[in-house]
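can u do me a favor
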C-alpha cells in the first residue's frame, strides 16, 4: 500500500454549527472531498472525526471546503478544544448581548404598534427601532438562511428570515407608499412589531439552547483534570520532573503521598494504599505492593512507591474512559432535531402556498386582485411564523426543569426528558447509590472472658487504629470515639503488611486486622465468636479481629449501610413495570446479600467501568430503553451510554456532569418522581408541537382566503400577527400547566 493510500483518522473541533442540519451539511461536505473515506460529526461535542487517505487530502483541505460554506475547523490538535471553548464562550456572550439589546428596542415597538398606532410618525418610529433588531441583532438568521438556501435546504432560520423579512419589507412599502393602497380603498397596515417580537423570541430560545450546550464538555474537562501535568522520572542521575506527555512505556516513575498516578504501570519498589474508587466504585482504598498494577488518575494515599510505566497517553484506562464518555455523549439526538427536520419540509410548503395564493388571486380575483393577492400572500407568511414552533420545546423544558428543582431534581436538557418518557429498564450502581458508600462499624462482639476490661481495650484499639493507614481503620476510630474513649499510650507500633497492625501496651502485645492475623499469631477464636463471624459474613460485612497473643478479644463488623428508602424505591420501580438491575465492582458474596436485602433479582458482581457501559449497551441492543443511576467516576461511561443518566447529588462531580439528571438528596425514591416528571414534560412538548402545527393548518388556509368565495372573509395581516402571538401565548400557557402536576 502506497503512502497516499494509507488511512489516517483525525478528530477536529468544528465552528459555526447551530443546528442538527448544520452537522449534516458538514458531514456531507467532508465526505464529498476526494480521498475521504468517512466523516462522523458529533453535534453534541461540536467535533468531527474524519478518516481519509493520507497523501490525497488533509486537514487544510477540509478547512478550506468548510470555510466555503460558512463553517470552520480548528487545526490545532493540542489546544483545539480550548480554542473552541473560547470561541463558544464569546459567541454565547455576544448572543446574550444581542438578545438583551433587541428586547430593549422591541418593547417600544410593541407598545406603539398595539396601543399608540395613531400618534404622528408612529410608523417611522417603529421602522427606526425595528431595523437594527432584524438586520443588526438578528442578522445571523438571514445569514444562516442564505447559507441553507445556497445548498437547497431550509431550517428554522429560513422560516424566521422569510416571515420577518417579508413582513418588514411589506411594512416599509406601506410606510413610504401608503397612497398606493389608499387609492384602492384599502388601509395599509404595518407589521414591525410582529417582525421584531419574532426575532427576540427565537433569539431567546437559541440563548437557552447555547446555555445548555456550553456545559457539555465540563465532564470531559474534569476527567482530563484527573491526569497530573508533571511526574517524577527516575534516571541514573536521580529524579527529574517532566511533563506527563513525555513519559514513555518502560520509564521508571516515583509517586509520593497524595499524588495522582500519571500513567498505567506496575510497582517494583515500595507500597501504599491507592484510592481506586474511580475504577471500582468501592470506597475502600487498595493496598499496592511490588508487582501490583496501578492506573492513571487514581490517587495515592500515605505511602510512596516506584513503578514502571506500561501504558501511556491514549492507551491508559483513564484515557479510554474519557474517549468512551465522549463517544456516548455524542450518540444522542435532542428533541429540537425533530423540529429542524419538520422545518426543512415546512418552509418549502409555506413558500409554495404563499406563491400559489398570489397566483390564484391573480387568476381568479376581482377588482383589487393584485393588492388583495399581495396582502393574502404576506398574511400567509406572517401567520406561518415559526415562533410557536420555536418555543414549543424550550418553554416546556424551562418549566419542567423548575418543577424538578422544586422536588430536588436537576434536569439538564430535553434529551433527558425525551428518554425518560420511554424508560423500561433501570440499572443501579451499588456503592453510593443503593448503599451509603461509607464503611461504618455495624456490630462488635466481645469474648466471654470475664477478665477482659473492655474500656481499657477500646483505648488500646483506638490508639492502634489511629496510627493505621488502612481505610477501614477510620470506621473503627469513629466508632470508638463515639463512646468517649481516650486512646491508650501504646508502644512499638508496627504495620503488618496485608494483615493489620501490632502494638504493645503494659508489656502485652495486641493485634488488629484481617483473619490473616489469626494465622500468624495462633490466637484462639472461641466457638461463640466463630458463629458471630459467620453471621457477619453472611450479611456481607467485613470482619476485623482484635486479639492479644493468646485469644481473640473482639470481632468487629464493618459494612456499607443500605440507604434509607432504597428497598422502597426498588419496589416502586418494579411495581411501575420497570426491570431493575444492580451492577457492582464488589465481590459476588456481597452483591448477593445487598441485592437480596433490597429485593433485586438481577445483579452482576466484579464489574469494571467499561463492563458497566457494555452491559447497558447490550440491554439497548435488546431494544430496552435504559436509565443508569450511579454516583462515581467509575459509573461515568455507563451513565454516558444510557438513554437516561441519573447521578446522585452526593456523588462525584464527573458523574454529575455526565448525567442528564441529578438527584440532589441522593434518595433513590426520587427516581420514580423523575420519570413521572419526564413523562409529563414530554407530553407537554408534544402537545405544544401539535398545537403549533394545528394552528398553521387552520391559519394558513384562512390567510390565503379560502373563505373569501364563500362569505367574502379575508384575514387581515394584523389579525394574522395577533394570531401568531396568540399561538405563542398558548404554547407558553400549556407549558406552565406543568407546575400544577403532582409527582407523589
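np, heres the sequence
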Amino acid at each position: 500500500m502506497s503512502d497516499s493510500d494509507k488511512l489516517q483518522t483525525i478528530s477536529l473541533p468544528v465552528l459555526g454549527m447551530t443546528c442538527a442540519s448544520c452537522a449534516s451539511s458538514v458531514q456531507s461536505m467532508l465526505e464529498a472531498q476526494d480521498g475521504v473515506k468517512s466523516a462522523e460529526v458529533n453535534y453534541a461535542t461540536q467535533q468531527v472525526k474524519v478518516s481519509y487517505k493520507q497523501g490525497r487530502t488533509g486537514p487544510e483541505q477540509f478547512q478550506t471546503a468548510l470555510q466555503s460554506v460558512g463553517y470552520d475547523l480548528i487545526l490545532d490538535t493540542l489546544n483545539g478544544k480550548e480554542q473552541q471553548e473560547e470561541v463558544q464562550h464569546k459567541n454565547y456572550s455576544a448572543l446574550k448581548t444581542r438578545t438583551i439589546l433587541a428586547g430593549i428596542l422591541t418593547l417600544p415597538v410593541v407598545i406603539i404598534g398595539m396601543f399608540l398606532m395613531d400618534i404622528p410618525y408612529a410608523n417611522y418610529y417603529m421602522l427606526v427601532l425595528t431595523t437594527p433588531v432584524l438586520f443588526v441583532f438578528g442578522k445571523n438568521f438571514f445569514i444562516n438562511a442564505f447559507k441553507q438556501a445556497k445548498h437547497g435546504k431550509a431550517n428554522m432560520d429560513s422560516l424566521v428570515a422569510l416571515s420577518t423579512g417579508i413582513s418588514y419589507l411589506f411594512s416599509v412599502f406601506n410606510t413610504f407608499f401608503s397612497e398606493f393602497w389608499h387609492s384602492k380603498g384599502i388601509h395599509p397596515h404595518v407589521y414591525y412589531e410582529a417582525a421584531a417580537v419574532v426575532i427576540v423570541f427565537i433569539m431567546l430560545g437559541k440563548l437557552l439552547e447555547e446555555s445548555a450546550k456550553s456545559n457539555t464538555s465540563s465532564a470531559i474537562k474534569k476527567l482530563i483534570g484527573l491526569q497530573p501535568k508533571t511526574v517524577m522520572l527516575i534516571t541514573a542521575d536521580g529524579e527529574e520532573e517532566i511533563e506527563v506527555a513525555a513519559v514513555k512505556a518502560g520509564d521508571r516513575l516515583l509517586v509520593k503521598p497524595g499524588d495522582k498516578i500519571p500513567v498505567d504501570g506496575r510497582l517494583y519498589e515500595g507500597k501504599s494504599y491507592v484510592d481506586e474508587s474511580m475504577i471500582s466504585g468501592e470506597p475502600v482504598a487498595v493496598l499496592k505492593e511490588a508487582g501490583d498494577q496501578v492506573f492513571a488518575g487514581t490517587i495515592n494515599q500515605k505511602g510512596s512507591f516506584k513503578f514502571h510505566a506500561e501504558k501511556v497517553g491514549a492507551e491508559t484506562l483513564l484515557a479510554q474512559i474519557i474517549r468512551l464518555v465522549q463517544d456516548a455523549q455524542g450518540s444522542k439526538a435532542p428533541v429540537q432535531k425533530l423540529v429542524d427536520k419538520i422545518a426543512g419540509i415546512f418552509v418549502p410548503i409555506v413558500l409554495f402556498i404563499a406563491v400559489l395564493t398570489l397566483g390564484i388571486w391573480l387568476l381568479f380575483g376581482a377588482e383589487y386582485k393584485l393588492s388583495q393577492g399581495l396582502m393574502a400572500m404576506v398574511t400567509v407568511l406572517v401567520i406561518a411564523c415559526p415562533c410557536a414552533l420555536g418555543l414549543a420545546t424550550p418553554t416546556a423544558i424551562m418549566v419542567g426543569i423548575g418543577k424538578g428543582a422544586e422536588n430536588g431534581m436537576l434536569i439538564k436538557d430535553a434529551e433527558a426528558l425525551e428518554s425518560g418518557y420511554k424508560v423500561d429498564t433501570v440499572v443501579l450502581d451499588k456503592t453510593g447509590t443503593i448503599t451509603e458508600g461509607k464503611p461504618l462499624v455495624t456490630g462488635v462482639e466481645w469474648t466471654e472472658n470475664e477478665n477482659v476490661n473492655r474500656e481499657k481495650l477500646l483505648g488500646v484499639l483506638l490508639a492502634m487504629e489511629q496510627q493505621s493507614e488502612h481505610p477501614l481503620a477510620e470506621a473503627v476510630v469513629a466508632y470508638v470515639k463515639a463512646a468517649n474513649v481516650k486512646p491508650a499510650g501504646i508502644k512499638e507500633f508496627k504495620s503488618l503488611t496485608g494483615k493489620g497492625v501490632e502494638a504493645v501496651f503494659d508489656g502485652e502485645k495486641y493485634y488488629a486486622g484481617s483473619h490473616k492475623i489469626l494465622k500468624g499469631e495462633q490466637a484462639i477464636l472461641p466457638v461463640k465468636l466463630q458463629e458471630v463471624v459467620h453471621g457477619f459474613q453472611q450479611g456481607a460485612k467485613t470482619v476485623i479481629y482484635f486479639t492479644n497473643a493468646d485469644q481473640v478479644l473482639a470481632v468487629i463488623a464493618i459494612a456499607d449501610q443500605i440507604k434509607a428508602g432504597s428497598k422502597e424505591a426498588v419496589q416502586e420501580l418494579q411495581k411501575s413495570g420497570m426491570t431493575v438491575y444492580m451492577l457492582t465492582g464488589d465481590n459476588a458474596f456481597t452483591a448477593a446479600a445487598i441485592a437480596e436485602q433490597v429485593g433485586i433479582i438481577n445483579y452482576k458482581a466484579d464489574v469494571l467501568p467499561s463492563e458497566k457501559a457494555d452491559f447497558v449497551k447490550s440491554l439497548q441492543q435488546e431494544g430496552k430503553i435504559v436509565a443508569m443511576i450511579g454516583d462515581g467516576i467509575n459509573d461515568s461511561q455507563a451513565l454516558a451510554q444510557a438513554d437516561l443518566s441519573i447521578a446522585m447529588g452526593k456523588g462525584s462531580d464527573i458523574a454529575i456532569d455526565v448525567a442528564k439528571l441529578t438527584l440532589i438528596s441522593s434518595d433513590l425514591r426520587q427516581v420514580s418522581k423523575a420519570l413521572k416528571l419526564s413523562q409529563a414534560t414530554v407530553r407537554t412538548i408534544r402537545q405544544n408541537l401539535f398545537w403549533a402545527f394545528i394552528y398553521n393548518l387552520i391559519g394558513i388556509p384562512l390567510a390565503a382566503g379560502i373563505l373569501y368565495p364563500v362569505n367574502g372573509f379575508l384575514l387581515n395581516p394584523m389579525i394574522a400577527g395577533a394570531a401568531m402571538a396568540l399561538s405563542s401565548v398558548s404554547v407558553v400557557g400549556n407549558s406552565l400547566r406543568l407546575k400544577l402536576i403532582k409527582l407523589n
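Residues 228-261+264-311 form a domain with the Calcium-transporting ATPase, cytoplasmic transduction domain A fold (CATH 2.70.150.10). hope that helps!!
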